Amino acid sequence: MESPKSRAHKEKKTSYRRRKHGNKKFYDSKAWRETREAYMRHYQRRLFKHIPMGKWDGMDLDAQQVTYILQLEYLPCEICLKMYCADAYDTVEKGVELDHIMPVNPGNALEPWIENEFGTLMACGDPFSFENLQLLCRFHHAKKSQRERRKK
Ligand SMILES: [Zn+2]
């Protein structure tokens, strides 16, 4: 007979596999790819609209900051950019990972509710809303994913 502990362990393994599989389909989907591209264009338009005016996220930029951001040859990480505008960072890394600010359902990104261990339904992040997306560098994305794993 299986001990309850090993059964729980097995269940955990299956649900992890299901989770990974569950969202692979979503991340390969045309709807996600199109959202991703549309978000990048939207972000770039926002940068070119606000940075030349010396504004970002409610902060005032000086001429040197404006010049630095405009000469970047890549779309900047949104956290690095915020820190740079707040004078907390000297440089801004390239944004490479499009992150869901509020995590989507790990089993199926299209399913907006997930049941927690107490059977309570919890809201998941909207996978397609621009409000729920941010472009991050590898460092900030890894840091955030680590935090989310620790919360579970
Ligand atoms: Zn960053």
List keywords for this structure.
mainly alpha; binds zinc ion; two-stranded antiparallel ribbon; 152 residues; single chain; elongated
Q: Layout of SSEs?
A:
Blueprint: H1 4-28, H2 30-50, E1 55-56, E2 59-60, H3 63-70, H4 78-85, E3 97-100, E4 113-115, E5 121-123, E6 133-136, H5 138-151
Antiparallel strand pairs: 1-2, 3-6, 4-5
Zinc ion (ZN) is lined by residues 77, 79-80, 93, 136-137, 139-140.
Structure write-up:
The structure is a single chain. This protein is 50% helix and 12% strand. The chain has 152 residues and is mainly alpha-helical. The strands form three sheets. It has a two-stranded antiparallel ribbon. The protein has a two-stranded antiparallel sheet with strand order 3-6. It has a two-stranded antiparallel sheet with strand order 4-5. The longest helix is centred in the N-terminal third of the chain and has 25 residues, at 4-28.
- What is the topology, as strand order, of the major beta sheet? 1-2
Please tally the β strands and state the result. Answer: 6
- Summed over residues and divided by their number, the pLDDT gives a mean of 89
Distance between the termini: 29 Å
Secondary structure: helix percent: 40-55%
Largest sheet: 2 strands, antiparallel
Low-confidence stretches: none
Q: Count of helices?
A: 5
Order of helices and strands: HHEEHHEEEEH
CA-based gyration radius:
19 Å
* Percentage of residues in DSSP E strands: 5-15%
Overall geometry comes to elongated
Structural class: mainly alpha
Structure ligands: zinc ion
Give me a quick take on this structure.
Helices cover 50% and strands 12% of the residues. By secondary structure, it is mainly α.
